[in-house]
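Two quick folds needed for the group meeting slides. Do the first one here.
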Amino acid sequence: MIRKASILLLAIVLAAGCATNDPNQKAKQGAGAGAAAGAIIGAIIGNQGGNNRTGAVVGAAAGAAIGAAIGHRMDKQQQELQQIPGVEVSRPSEGEIAVNLTNDILFDFNSSALRGESQQTLRDLAANFRNYPDEQVTVEGHTDSVGTPSYNQTLSEQRASAVSGYLIDQGVPSSRITSIGYGETRPKASNDTPEGRQLNRRVEIHIRATQG
């Protein structure tokens, strides 16, 4: 039980690293977060064996290596995703990559059927996701405020489901994908202008590192 809790703690600390666009700094942060978590975990496990000091040292080294490896892996994946046309890629946190696709690229107005032009983009995304099997993918649907909240909620869910379903059809395991709709509740810009509404009509894909 203690070992399981320790592994969970390590995953949480690694995922909570600070965001930065500097690959070298991100690697340092990942290693630092891993070392801190590893030291805590090693001390806990070492204490069970009567030598918490040695456990902390070993845990810190192992945690640092894991944290740095995850950081480098996600750096490489981010660079690959940035080569795909029609997507915006960002790094909200050390253990996460966000991919933004506007609904105008994916769908026709008031439709949840994928446009033919968008399918190549999604095929490219699926190919990338298949190359990184130790990650979880969350597909989020968002709308502007035009229409009723209930209609927008349903449309956002349908659009997130359409994207998730296509990724699954392209070979990404369904066990790795979560689909959720937020309707008009999470705008990125003002709904008072056409430009703002366009930004709010979107699908976001969040890729999160897991231990591996």
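Then this one, please, same format:
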Amino acid sequence: MATAHDMLAFIAASPSPFHCVAEGARRLAAAGYRAVDEGEPLPALEPGAGFYVERGGTLIAWRGGARSPSAAGFRILGAHTDSPNLRIKPRVESTSEGYVRWAVEPYGGLIVATWADRDLGLSGRVALRGADGLETRLVRVDRPIARIPNLAIHLNREVNEKGLTLNKQTHLPPVVALAGAAHPSAELFVSLLARELDVAPEQLLAWDLMLHDVTPPTLGGVHDEFIFSARLDNQASSYCALEALLALEDHVPEATSVIMLFDHEECGSLSERGASSALGPQLLRRVMGAHAAHDGGSLSQAMTRSLMVSADMAHAVHPAYAERHEPEHKPRINAGPVIKHNVNTRYATDAVVAARFKLACADVGAPVQEFVNRSDLTCGSTIGAISAANLACPTVDVGCAMLSMHSIREQAGAADVAWMQQAMTRVLRDG
């Protein structure tokens, strides 16, 4: 349960991908890892030495192995920091029927209706004109400043029979204030940011901001066996990967250990810091060159001796919709890590990498489950297949079972967190 509680603290600190990276970097620095400027030469990598780089919502960290990567390979844990949500548009405010509303755009495949009638805060990063030029700063407003009000049933009599359908353009802009002389709408948003950052309004230039649910993550269920939280997909996996790396402590495996926590998975990974970018391969080549035991070997050589675990949350069987699952592949919450399979390579798993992950789970006493999508339903995807293709690295797709995926509040199992983290640590140590 200590691991589950710590994960709740990690997610609570991470209302946006940028905050998730900041929290990860804070934990790495506290454990002795050193921040690296991507634009500078990488420091020499001695066995056991740890470094990390931050690029927006992406965090990559590595720890030197006892042997060169070309001889022993890499052990890579991959996940993503972003989650479906509502992003703030550049031109923010409008008034309608006496209310001030903010223009928002859906990010990723969110379940839109779950965002109605929730208390919403604001988080992300802001670019501004500072004393020494352009600056970026994180901002977080945790008080409930925005809300998307539902229409009363008296005015929508068929909502319970036909379901709640919200138009993404006209219905999703949240109400943030009453319009009027005391609240000039053109100034509300900028004034709020200026106060939060303690800067003049004219210093604000642009922003990557989003709404988030202000209800804290918590344990739930009669026996506290569940986790109820926003952003479990996929900050739960990011947490497990980070803590698996930190759990190596003084142990120095032969292989160099790496975690890659990418941004933008929920919208396709196609960005300068997403899993589809050259960021991962480029950085691994540089890590190889900085390794104290570097022998002139190539990245392609190292990849033949490497393994990547791509961790993204998995679909638990739903008690009310069990027919949506393949009959013999129904993962359950708190029944162990899930290995995800798809013969059309939406997941990267094959028999060899599945077997290697099963052995890691067996070594730490973690049960293993397997997931295959129904053949008549479209399969989702992860960073696994993308990273496997970019790196030519054997990759297994895994995840913790959960319900309510892509809802504003999601549900997973408290016991599964420790099992996943322990299995990942085993992969880094000996996998």
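Slide caption for protein two: The chain has a mean pLDDT of 96.
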